[in-house]
Write a structure and sequence with these properties.
homodimer; alpha/beta; 36 helices; 27 strands; binds pyridoxal-5'-phosphate; binds bicarbonate ion
C-alpha cells in the first residue's frame, strides 16, 4: 500500500517524475480510501488482500518489461511522445488508393460533439434501451441511410468491416441452403482484401469459392446456373471502377433466384447517392463500408460496415438491429430488436458470432448524412463524378499515351500505361512531385479514386501526371459542360426523405441535435456503468486525443510501409508490451472485436493442427458458463462444440472436463475458457484443466475478456494457454463507443506464430511472413489501428509499476462492494464457508429467490435507472442475476452510492413481497419525466418523490430516463427498423 | 435572394469553391425558408426587404475588400490556412519570461469538457440563475479559491486582467476617500504593464501616482503617512521575484489604515498556496491573475483576473459576484448578487464600468483547483520553489560569475550579470542553445520565472546557462536536501478545505463533475438564446478549434516579435479587415471588453482634444436609452455625462441633442450613440446628429454592440463616426463563455490613430508609434489575442459576399418573428402607421400593460424557461419589456418554436388576468423537477403536464431548470459568496 501511495502521488522532490501522473487520474480510490476499504474487509494492506484473493499457483507477479518509464509517462510527456510518433506518419499526402478507403471530411461539429465527446464514446451497447434512446435514434438513422441508399428494407446497425460483412453474406447464403449449396461465386473485381476474408470464412465449411469475370456475361451466367451455387457477390462499382449494367445485374439475380440462391452486392454509399440502387436489380443483400461518410481512414479502421437485406431475410440478418417499439405508456421508443437471433441466445446454433460492432462510427456516418442531407451528399458525389470524368477525358485525349481500362466509372479509374511508362514510375512521380499516392494494380496498370477531399488543384496535378498537356485547364471545363452522371446508371428516386435528413443543416441545429441525442443516453460521464464482463473503466482524454489527429486519421491502410513509420513503431511496441503482459510470444492485431479474436484464435489453432496433419481435430470443449460468442465462434470455425459442466460453487467441473477430453481425445482441437471465470472467480484448478487438454492433443484458448483481473499478477501465457484474445475495449481502455469500436488482438505461444493471419494487399509490418499464415480475418491488416493509440497510451502511462494496480484496485473495488452488499443479497458462489470468499474483479448478485415472489432481475435493473445507474450485466452468465464489475476507475463515493441504491432497492423488493403498494415502484420503473408529471398518480401506492428521488444524492445529480420501460415483444412482432417511425416517436404525444 | 442561394449552397460544378461552405452552416434559414419568410412579410426578395428596412441615406453597400476569397474560405481551407499561420509562431520555446504570465498545464479533461465544450463556451452571463446553476457553482468555487488563498472573505467572479484589476483597486481607494485623497502609492516592483494601466486610470482624475522603493522601508513609510494617500499597491511576490516580509507589509497596512487608506496587494495564486496570505498583514484588497491555474498564456489573454476584499468593502467590490440565495421552494440556489452596485443600475454613478468579464477562464482556473486539490497544488508549488532555489544555489555558487539580486523568491530570479556578460548574450544563448526565453530587465540584468511545466532537463539547461559547471547534477540534490519553502514566509493554515476541492481527483470523477455542472446550464447547445443587444450567434467549431492549439496558446505576450510572426500576420490582417468593415482607418486590439472599448475610445478622444489644446472639453452626451456601460465609462474618463432625451417613437430627440450640444458647445467632448439604436431601430437622422456634434467641436463615439445589423450594409465610418468599439463577442462570433471572454477593438478615423494606446513592455507590432499614444488600457498589448482567431476565421469564412448576409438574415429573422408576434403583443415603437414599420436585428416586446394587472415581465421571462428557452433581454433598454434578438444563426423551426411559446404564454397571461387559477403557472415558473414531483399539487389550478410540457415539442427536447425561481432579496440581505454553502446547496433536501 506504500507502493500505491508512491504510484498515486508523485513526490515533488523527485524531479525525474512529472507531477501530472496518470495513475492518480485513472484509479478511483485515494490511498486513504484504499486503507479504509481494506480495513472494512479486514486487511492490513494490499499485498495481504491480493495474496488471499489470487490462488498462490496463479499469482506470478512477473515484472512487466514495458517500453516506458517504470512509473509510466506523465500525461503531457505522453502527448509529446505521441506527437513524435504521429509525425513519423506521412499524413499530408493525398491518398487516392481507394479500394474501400477514401478521403473524407469529418464535419468539425460532429468531430467535436460526437467523436470527441465522452458522452458518446463512453457509453455501452444500448441493451438498456430506456437510457440509450439517443444513440438508438442515431443508429436507426444509420439503418435508414443504408436502407434508403441500397433500396433494401432491412439494415443492421453495423458490422465490423466490408470483408467480414461479405463473409456474413456468404455464410447467410450457405446456411439458407441448409448448407447444401457448397459453391459461392465472386466477381473477380471484388476488392482484394474482401476476397481474402471470404477465403478465410469459406475454408471451415469447405465452401468452394469460384471467381468469375463478370465482363463475360454468358460465361458468368453459366457458372451461376449450377444449383450448387449458394450465392454470388459482385462489387458495384467494382474495384477497378467499372459499373455493371442493370441488365447484367438483373440477369445474375434471376439465375440465382431460380435456384434459390442469394445475390449479394458490395457497394459504395457515396456512389449510391447517384447510382441506381442494387435492390432495383434483384439484390438480396447489399453490404459495404460507410467509412467515407466522415470517418477517418485511420490506417484501416475502425469503420462501420453496413448490411441490408430483403424483407424475407429480416430474421437472418447478422448483428444488431435497432427497431421501434413502445414503452409502458405506449409512447414509441427504440431498442435492439430480434435479439433472439444473436449468439448470446443461439450460441453454437448462431449463424454469426458478431457481438461488439462499430456503433460509434456508424453514428458518425449517420450524422454526416443528417448534416449534409440528400442535396449535400449528392453535391459531393456529383463533384467527385465530374472530376473523375474530366480526368478520364484528359487521359483519353491525344495528350496522353495511356488509356482507361474501365468503360465507366463513378470515382475510380484504372489506367493502362500501355507500356509507355511503368506503374512504379507513375507512382513515384505522383508522390514526389505532387504528394499523392496512387495504387499499382500491376507493373503496367495503376488505379486511383477521387473523393470528397479532391480539389481542383489535385485534379490539375493528376492531369499533369497522366498527360503532357501544359494547359490542363482545358479539360476542366466548368459550368455548362461539367460532366453529369449518365442517365443510364442514375437513380431518380428521392433519397433520405425523412425529416431528420432535411432539418439539421446549420451548425447550430446540428449541435443541438447531437446534444439532444447525447442527453438521452447514460454514459460514464453520468455515473458508474458496473457491467460485469465489460470493464467500463476510464477512457481518458489523453488516450483519446490522438484519435482525431490527422497524423493517425489520414493514413490509408495500403499506404507504402515507408510512409507509416509512426504506426509501425506504435504497433510494434504495443505488440511487445502485450507480449510482456500476457506472457505470449506473438501477437496479431488484426481481429477487431472479441468475437473476431476468438474466431482468429481458433482458426490459428486449426491451422496449426492441420500443419501437424491433424486437420480432423475439430472438437472444441466449452464450459456451459461461456459467453455466447465462444460457441458461436467455434461453430463458425466448423468445430463441434462440446459443453463442459460447472459445479455448484461456480467452478469448472474438472472431472467432466477430463471425461469429455478423454471421450473426444482423437478429435480434440481446443478448449475455450474464460479466466477469471465468467462468474468472476479465480479458479484454482485452471492449470490442471490446461494440462488435461494438452495431454489429449488439444490447444488451450483463453477468452481474455476478464484480463483486467490478471495484469501484472498472472497471465494467460504463464498459466499455460496457447492463445488468448485481449479485449482492448475492456482491459486496455478503448471506449465502448455505444457498441463498438473494439480491438481484440490475439496473443499466441511461439508454435502458433507462423499461423497468424496475413494480408493479401500489404505485408504485415510487425510480423514475419510464413507459408502457414491463415488468410485475413478482416479487411484491414491491423484491425482498428486508429484506436490502438488508446491502449498504447494506457499501458505507457500506467507503466510497469502502475499497471498491476489497475487489476488490484479493480478487485479491491469489487470486493468492497460485495462486502457491503452481501449483508443484503446473496452473492452467487461466494460465502464465508466455501473456497470462494472473494470475487475477482466482478461478482454476481443472485436475485432468483425473488422470482417466485414476483420480482424479476429486470425489475431491479430498471429500477436502478431511477437511481441514476446503468444496470449491471443482466442474466449473464446466470439468468436471474446481475453481475457487477466496478473497475478500478470508480472512486469510493461512487461505489457507495451504487451500494446504497441497491440496498434501498432491497427495501423496495421487501415491500413488494410484503404486498405493500409501494413495491409497485419496481414494476413501473424506470420513471420517465412524462410518467412523473402525468395526472393519474393516485393509484400508484408510492409518491412521485419516492419514484424520482429515492435517495438524497439524486436531487443533486440524476440521469433521467427519457422513456418508460420498453415493450420488447411488441417491437419484435411489429418489426420496424427504419426512420419514418422516428418521426412518429418524436411527434407522438401519447 | 438568388445571391443567397449561391452563397448558401456552392455549385458542385464550380471546382474553385469548396463544398464545405461555412455560410450554409452559419446561417439558419435555407433559401427556401428565406423565400417563405419574405412572403410572410410581403416581400419578393431580400433586396426589397433590405431597402425598405434600412434608410436610403444609411444604406451604403460598399464592397468589403476582405483578405479572403469573395465567397469565403471553406471550412477545411480555413483550418489549413490557420495551421499555416499558427506554425509561424515559435511555440515550442520554453517561456520563462514571467511578469504575470507563466507556463501551465491545462488538464486534458478540463480542456475537452470545458474549454472545448460548447455547453460551456456558448452560454451567456448567468443573469437567469435558474438555468445557470452549473457555471454559478463553478464561479463560486473560483471565488472560494480566491478567498481561501488571499485570506480575504469576499471575492468577485473575475475581472479582465491584472492591470485593470489594479486600476479598480486604485479607484476604489480613491472613491472611498470621496475623491479627497488624490495620491496613490505603488511599489516600484509592481509588474511594468500594471504600472502603465494605473497611469492610464489615474490620469482622468488627476490622481498623483507615487512610485516607492519598498526596500527602503523608512522612506516608504514616510511617503505613506501623507493623509492625501488614498492607498498603496505592492506586488507580493514582486516582479523581481522578491518577497516582502510580513513585518514590512504589516507596517504599510498600519500606516495606511491610520489614515483610512486602503492597502492593496497584487499577488500570485500559485505562490499563495505556500506563502502567508496577504490578509494576515492587513491587506484590504488582493488582486492578480489566475492564468497559471491552467489557462494558456495565449499571447496575453484571455485570463481571469481576481479581486478580493475585506468584509467592509463587500458592497464596493467591482464586477460580478456570485452569491448563495434560495429558490421559491427554499432550496439553496446561486445567483449574481448585489447587482445594484453595477453600472447597468448606477450608470455614471457607478465606480466601475466592468460588464463582460472572464467567466470561462475563471471556470478553467476553478476547475484546475477542483482537480488538483490542495495537495496537488502544493506539490506543484513546492516543486517550482525547489527548482528555483536549486538554480539560485547554482548561480550563487563558485561556478557562476553572476549573482541573484532578489534576496528571496518563490519562482522568479533576477540575475545580475555583474558585467561578466550581457543580457543580450545570455538571452541569445538561452534561446539558441536551449530554446528558452528569458527576460532582459536591462542590459546587465536578466530575470526568469519557473513554472509548472519546468522539467529537470530545463533546470539542467538553466544551470548550464548561468554556471560553467559541467556536472550540473550536483546542484540538483534530490531527496533529503530538496529545498523547502522557508518557514518565515510560509502559511500553515489549511487551504481549499471545502469538499469540492477534495473529491474530484480522478478523471472519471472530474468528468462527471464537469458534466453535472454543464447539464444544469442552458447554452446554445440547447436552444436559441434570443438576448437583445447580445447577439448570441453560432460560435462554430472551426472558429473555436485553434483556441486550444499550442501554437496560439503557448505564446508569452512579451515574447520577441520575431517569434510571433503568426500572430502578427493574423492580427494585422484582422485589423485591415475590420477597417474595411467599419470604414475606419486604424484599429486598436487592446480593449478586451465592450466597456473597455468605450473607455479606450473616450480616452483617445480626450487625448486628441488635449493635443489640440482642448483638454477642458469634458462633456459627453449620452441618450437616456444607452447601455449602462456608456455613462459609467464616460465617468471613468472623468467626463461629465449629459443625458439626451428620446422621442416616444424610440428615436433620438434630435432637437434635444441640438439643445444640449449648443448648451455645452464650449466643453463638448463627445456623444456616445448606439447604432442601430438600443431599441433595435435604424434611426434615419443619425448623420444629422453627428453633424451637430462635429459642428460643436465634439467627437462621435459609436457603441458598436449592434454592429450585427450593419456589416456590409453600412458602417460607423461611412456614417461619420470618429471612433467605435466592436464587440467581437457579439458580431464577430467570439463566444460569450458564460460571461466572458470578450474582445472589443476600437476603430478610429485617421486623426485619432496617433492617440491609440501603446504598451510599455513591448511595441505594438501592428501600429505606428506616436508621441500621443495613451498609456495602456490593459495588461496585454493586444487584449485577448487567443480568441481573435475566432473573429478572424468568421470573417474569412463568410467572405466579402457572405458577410453582409449575416446582417441581412439577422434582420430577416428578427422581422419574421416580430411579424408573427405583433398580432399577440405590442412591439415597442413599431407600428404600421409610425415611421418604424420594421425593426433592425432585434425588437422589444412591451409587457408594461400587464403590470397593473399583476403580470410582470419577469414572470414571462421565467415562464419561458419552462418552454426550454432563455429569456430575451429583460428590462433593457426599457423596464417592463423583453428585447428579442434571434441572430442569423437560428433557423426557421427554432424561430417558430420560440414564437409559438410566446403565443402560448400570451394565453397564460390572459388566464391570469381573467383570474383563472391556471394563470398561476406564470408566478410559479420556472418549474424545477423537484417542484414537479412534489406532493401537494392540488392547490395549483393547473396540471403538472401543463407546467412541464405546455407545448408538444417539449416532450422531445426540453431543458429542465434545476431550481425554482430565485429569491434575490434574501441573498442580498444574507450575502454569502464562498463555497461552504455550496455543500449546503448540494445536501439540502429542503
Ligand atoms: C467473456 C467474453 N468473451 C467474449 C466477448 C465478445 O467480445 P466482443 O463483444 O468484442 O466481440 C465478450 C463481450 O462482452 C465477453 O464478455
Ligand atoms: C449596447 C452595449 N454597449 C456596451 C456593452 C458592454 O460590452 P461588454 O459587456 O463587452 O463590456 C454592451 C453589452 O451587452 C451593450 O449591449
Ligand atoms: O457484449 C456482451 O455480450 O457483453
Amino acid at each position: 500500500s506504500l507502493q500505491y501511495e508512491k504510484i498515486y502521488r508523485p513526490d515533488p522532490k523527485m524531479l525525474d517524475r512529472p507531477l501530472d501522473s496518470f495513475a492518480r487520474r485513472h484509479l478511483g480510490p485515494s490511498p486513504k480510501n484504499v486503507a479504509y476499504m481494506l480495513k472494512t474487509m479486514g486487511y492490513e494492506d494490499l499485498d495481504g488482500f491480493v495474496n488471499s484473493l489470487v490462488p498462490p499457483d496463479i499469482l506470478k507477479k512477473r515484472p512487466l518489461l514495458l517500453e516506458a518509464p517504470a512509473e509510466g509517462f506523465g500525461e503531457q510527456e505522453m502527448l509529446e511522445h505521441m506527437e513524435q510518433i504521429a509525425n513519423k506518419n506521412k499524413y499530408k499526402v493525398k491518398n487516392l488508393i481507394g479500394k474501400g478507403y477514401y478521403g473524407t471530411i469529418l464535419p468539425p461539429v460532429i468531430q467535436r460533439n460526437l467523436l470527441e465527446s465522452p458522452e458518446w464514446y463512453t457509453s455501452y451497447t444500448p441493451y438498456q434501451p430506456e437510457i440509450s434512446q439517443g444513440r438508438l435514434e442515431s443508429l436507426l438513422n444509420f439503418q435508414t441511410v443504408i436502407s434508403d441508399l441500397t433500396g433494401l428494407p432491412v439494415a443492421n446497425a453495423s458490422l465490423l468491416d466490408e470483408g467480414t460483412a461479405a463473409g456474413e453474406a456468404m455464410l447467410l447464403s450457405y446456411n439458407l441452403s441448409r448448407r447444401k449449396k457448397t459453391k459461392y461465386v465472386i466477381d473477380s473485381r471484388v476488392h482484394p482484401q474482401t476476397k481474402s476474408v471470404l477465403l478465410t470464412r469459406a475454408h471451415p465449411f469447405d465452401i468452394e469459392l469460384i471467381e468469375i469475370d463478370t465482363s463475360h456475361v454468358e460465361n458468368a451466367l453459366e457458372v451461376l446456373k449450377d444449383p450448387k451455387v449458394a450465392g454470388c457477390l459482385v462489387q458495384y462499382p467494382a474495384t477497378d471502377g467499372s459499373i455493371l449494367s442493370g441488365e447484367v445485374l438483373s440477369s445474375f439475380a434471376e439465375v440465382l433466384h431460380a435456384n434459390k440462391g442469394l445475390f449479394s452486392v458490395a457497394s459504395d454509399l457515396m456512389a449510391l447517392t447517384l447510382l441506381k440502387p442494387p435492390a432495383d436489380f434483384g439484390a438480396d443483400i447489399v453490404l459495404g463500408s460507410s467509412q467515407r461518410f466522415g470517418v477517418p481512414m485511420g490506417f484501416g479502421g475502425p469503420h462501420a460496415a453496413f448490411f441490408s437485406v430483403v424483407e424475407k431475410l429480416n430474421r437472418k440478418i447478422p448483428g444488431r438491429i435497432v427497431g421501434v417499439s413502445k414503452d409502458r405508456l405506449n409512447k414509441p421508443a427504440l431498442r435492439l430488436a430480434l435479439q433472439t437471433r444473436e449468439q448470446h441466445i443461439k450460441r453454437d446454433k448462431a449463424t454469426s458470432n458478431i457481438c461488439t460492432a462499430q456503433a460509434l462510427l456508424a453514428n458518425v456516418a449517420a450524422n454526416y448524412c443528417v448534416y449534409h442531407g440528400p442535396e449535400g451528399l449528392k453535391d459531393i458525389a456529383e463533384r467527385i463524378y465530374g472530376m473523375t470524368t474530366i480526368l478520364a477525358n484528359a487521359i483519353q485525349s491525344k495528350f496522353s499515351k495511356f488509356s482507361i481500362s474501365n468503360k465507366n466509372w463513378f470515382d475510380t479509374l484504372t489506367i493502362d500505361l500501355n507500356g509507355n511508362s511503368s506503374s512504379k514510375a507513375i507512382l513515384n512521380k505522383a508522390l514526389e512531385k505532387y504528394n499523392m499516392n496512387l495504387f499499382a494494380v500491376d507493373e503496367n496498370i495503376v488505379s486511383l479514386s477521387l473523393d470528397e477531399t479532391t480539389t481542383r488543384e489535385d485534379l490539375v496535378n493528376l492531369v499533369k501526371i497522366f498527360t503532357d498537356s501544359s494547359d490542363v485547364t482545358k479539360f476542366i471545363s466548368e459550368g455548362n459542360e461539367f460532366p453529369v452522371f449518365p442517365k443510364q446508371y442514375a437513380r431518380f428516386d428521392k433519397i433520405l426523405t425523412d425529416p431528420v435528413f432535411n432539418t439539421h443543416h446549420s451548425e447550430t441545429a446540428m449541435l443541438r441535435y447531437l446534444h439532444r441525442l447525447q442527453s438521452r443516453d447514460l454514459s460514464l460521464a453520468n455515473s458508474m456503468i458496473p457491467l460485469g464482463s465489460c470493464t467500463m473503466k476510464l477512457n481518458s482524454t489523453v488516450e483519446m486525443m490522438p484519435i482525431t489527429w490527422p497524423q493517425f486519421g489520414n493514413i490509408h491502410p495500403f499506404q507504402p510501409v515507408d510512409q507509416v513509420e509512426g504506426y509501425k513503431e506504435l504497433l510494434s511496441s504495443l505488440e511487445r508490451d502485450l507480449c510482456t503482459i500476457t506472457g505470449f510470444d506473438g501477437i496479431s492485431l488484426q481481429p477487431n472485436s472479441g468475437a473476431q479474436g476468438e474466431y482468429t484464435g481458433l482458426r490459428v489453432i486449426r491451422s496449426y493442427l492441420e500443419s501437424k496433419g491433424e486437420s480432423h481435430r475439430d472438437v472444441c470443449l466449452i464450459p456451459v458458463s461461456a459467453h455466447g460468442t465462444n460457441p458461436a465462434s467455434a461453430a463458425m470455425c466448423g468445430m463441434k462444440v462440446v459443453p463442459v459442466n460447472c459445479l455448484t460453487d461456480g467452478s469448472l467441473d474438472l472431472s467432466d472436463l477430463k471425461l469429455q477430453a478423454d471421450k473426444y481425445k482423437d478429435n480434440l482441437a481446443a478448449v475455450m475458457i474464460t479466466y477469471p471465470s465468467t462468474y468472476g472467480l479465480f479458479e484454482p484448478g485452471i492449470q490442471n484443466a490446461f494440462k488435461v487438454i494438452h495431454e489429449n492433443g488439444g490447444q488451450v484458448y483463453l477468452d481474455g475478456a476478464n484480463m483486467n483481473a490478471q495484469v501484472g499478477l498472472t497471465s494467460p501465457g504463464d498459466l499455460g494457454a496457447d492463445v488468448c484474445h485481449l479485449n482492448l475495449h475492456k482491459t486496455f481502455s478503448i471506449p465502448h463507443g455505444g457498441g463498438g469500436p473494439a480491438g481484440a488482438p490475439i496473443g499466441v505461444k511461439s508454435h502458433l506464430i507462423p499461423h497468424l493471419p496475413k494480408h493479401d494487399v500489404v505485408d504485415i509490418v510487425t510480423a514475419v511472413k510464413s507459408e502457414y499464415s491463415i488468410d485475413s480475418v478482416g479487411s484491414a491488416p491491423y484491425g482498428n489501428p486508429l484506436v490502438l493509440p488508446i491502449s498504447y497510451a494506457y499501458i505507457k502511462m500506467m507503466g510497469r509499476e502502475g499497471l498491476p494496480f489497475s487489476s488490484v484496485i479493480a478487485m479491491l473495488n469489487a470486493n468492497y462492494m460485495m462486502t457491503r452488499l452481501k449483508n443484503h443479497y446473496n452473492i452467487l458462489f461466494i460465502s464465508q464457508e466455501s473456497k470462494n470468499r472473494h470475487c475477482a474483479h466482478e461478482f454476481i448478485i443472485d436475485l432468483r429467490e425473488y422470482k417466485k415472489k414476483g420480482v424479476e432481475a429486470i425489475d431491479v435493473a430498471k429500477r436502478l435507472q431511477d437511481y441514476g445507474f446503468h444496470a449491471p450485466t443482466l442474466a449473464f452468465p446466470v439468468p436471474g442475476t446481475l453481475m457487477v464489475e466496478p473497475t478500478e476507475s470508480e472512486n469510493l463515493e461512487e461505489l457507495d452510492r451504487f451500494v446504497d441504491s441497491m440496498i434501498a432497492i432491497k427495501g423496495e423488493i421487501e415491500a413488494f413481497i410484503a404486498g405493500e403498494p409501494k413495491g409497485q415502484v419496481l414494476k413501473n420503473a424506470p420513471h420517465s419525466l412524462e410518467d412523473l408529471v402525468s395526472e393519474d398518480w393516485s393509484a400508484r401506492g408510492y409518491t412521485r418523490e419516492e419514484a424520482a428521488f429515492p435517495l438524497a444524492f439524486l436531487k443533486n445529480n440524476k440521469f433521467w430516463p427519457p422513456v418508460a420501460r420498453l415493450d420488447d415483444a411488441y417491437g419484435d412482432m411489429n418489426l420496424m427498423c427504419t426512420c419514418p417511425s422516428v418521426l412518429e416517436v418524436a411527434n407522438d404525444d401519447a
